[in-house]
Model the fold of this input.
Amino acid sequence: MELIKLGFNKFNQTYLDNKDTGNLYIGRVSAEYRNLYQVYFEQGIINATIRGKFKKDCLSGSREFPTVGDWVLFEYIPEENKGIIEELLPRKSKFSRKMAGEKTQEQVVASNIDYAFIVVALNYDFNVRRIERYIAVTWQSGAIPVLVLTKADLCVDLQDKLAELEDVTFGIDIHVIDNISNSGISQLKKYFNFNQTIVLLGSSGVGKSSLINNLMQQDIMKVGILRNNIDKGRHTTTHKQLLILPTGGLIIDTPGIRELQLWDSDQGIDHTFEDIEQLSHDCYFRDCTHTNEPKCAVQKAIMDGNLDVKRLNNYQKLQREQSYSLQRQEQSAAKIEKDKWKSIHKQIRKLNI
Done:
């Protein structure tokens, strides 16, 4: 299996040109299970574990665990057809979110991606404010967002929904598809040229698995049937997986995302809401909050009908969430540092130093 068909590019080669890899092999993580990784490499596909020291470093926070899409260096044991991962290569891009729950911890959903298909069903799932959130996190990731609207056969107000998106999807391609009739599927194939990698993002039951089956040209993913009385598909994908398309290119399927909490998305928010950022430059006060200040260009745009107040509210909501997230991250980092020194002092006391 040629590395170039796995998405290997100049970014990866530049790193390896300056590194002595010895007898280590290079591969790409295609699936992630508990304490086990599936890795594609030139000889085929193997299961791999992490070297003990690597795992210890990951648990201490000095290194990161691999995830689907990552390139890794590993020791290959041919007689057992398995590998031991020694190192994680630098990531060109990564789609991250705050891990669900109370823990202040980053969760990398997928890495080394070129495009992110934000998959939204044209029924119950359609929510402009949520789409803005996905776009912001995608811009932050380093990948290019593409909006894929599914279940066109169930939509009776398509033009109205497209009109709603006009002011929130600047510079973003929008594709309307129907997985049943395959309408619009062929338009997506251009994103896979030159062995590029695409990740599918979206809620459960929006048609991601059906889309993969159409792109793979076979029923490789289990598809959930529609639930009774509502046009909502069942959750079918249970783990992340990287697949190689028969026509070239790679796609990463992900489980449905119930909540997309921000991790480090300040630049992505600015990019997504560039129209508000530009308007704010004309505000009379440099620190204008766009609420009650006089001569506010943003509020004037709302009054003139040039800006939806819901868009401003969402922008401010995401900014507050990002600020809170960064504050929690700083508190968490400070606690880790405090606990580290507490442990050191405890060891010193034991040794009577």
In short: The chain has a mean pLDDT of 87. The chain has three domains: 3-88, 94-253, 266-345.
